[in-house]
Automatic annotation (TrEMBL):
<dbReference type="InterPro" id="IPR017359">
    <property type="entry name" value="Phi-like"/>
</dbReference>
<feature type="domain" description="RWD">
    <location>
        <begin position="12"/>
        <end position="99"/>
    </location>
</feature>
<dbReference type="Pfam" id="PF05773">
    <property type="entry name" value="RWD"/>
</dbReference>
<dbReference type="InterPro" id="IPR016135">
    <property type="entry name" value="UBQ-conjugating_enzyme/RWD"/>
</dbReference>
<protein>
    <recommendedName>
        <fullName>RWD domain-containing protein</fullName>
    </recommendedName>
</protein>
<dbReference type="InterPro" id="IPR006575">
    <property type="entry name" value="RWD_dom"/>
</dbReference>
Amino acid sequence: MTNREEAEIQISELDLLSSMFPYEEEFTVTDQLAVAELKHFVENESAEMPSSKIQFILNVKLEDSNASTEKFTMVCALPFKYPSVLPEITVRYVIKKYC
């Protein structure tokens, strides 16, 4: 897979995520300049590889049958060779203490 094909896939996945999670409190790309560089790279044959990684935050709320809501946050950084190389993913979850 070429670098441009990988970049196109990254842009497509960001578009998909933004349509699945349309609100800023759900899905946030942390560096819009990185997205602009990636799009410029895809659209221009003479463009150099982007210098920044695409990073985003996904906040997900889960509701269970007892009507309680749990929330976790996923922070993801896409390497330049993604999807050929796995992304860096960190998941944060706050455990509620019930007394």
